[in-house]
Write a structure and sequence with these properties.
The structure is a single chain. With 104 residues, the chain is mainly alpha-helical. Helices cover 50% and strands 0% of the residues. It has four helices and no strands. Helix 1 runs antiparallel to helix 2 and helix 1 packs parallel to helix 3. The two termini are 47 Å apart.
Length: 104
């Protein structure tokens, strides 16, 4: 699923070769007998068509490398602050207790 998400992200970034490569990796990791989802197949076909169109129009050289491998590293985020259960319960507004019996 991660490679599927990566492939779609690369597709929207117009890195069609990177998207095709990611979909290929996604196919390799699927259990035997399973196929890409209908949506993934549609994105793969669109990426292949867009790449072919760019090649025909001469917008990119034939041996362009995927930008996915050469992109800048993703910055690390600070870990979330730990909040104890008691503190979380004290911060939430008071909610009335559930009724023992519902009106009929």
């Amino acid at each position: 699923e991660a490679y599927s998400t990566l492939a779609k992200s690369l597709f929207y970034m117009k890195d069609y070769q990177g998207a095709i490569d990611a979909f290929s990796k996604c196919k390799e990791l699927l259990p035997e007998g399973e196929l890409l989802s209908m949506f993934d197949r549609a994105y793969l076909q669109k990426a292949q068509a867009a790449l072919q169109q760019e090649l025909e129009e001469g917008k990119i050289p034939m041996r362009q490398k995927s930008t996915a491998k050469s992109s800048a590293p993703i910055p690390k985020l600070k870990p979330p602050k730990f909040v104890s259960r008691e503190e979380a319960m004290n911060r939430t507004p008071t909610v009335p207790a559930m009724p023992k019996q519902w009106p009929q």
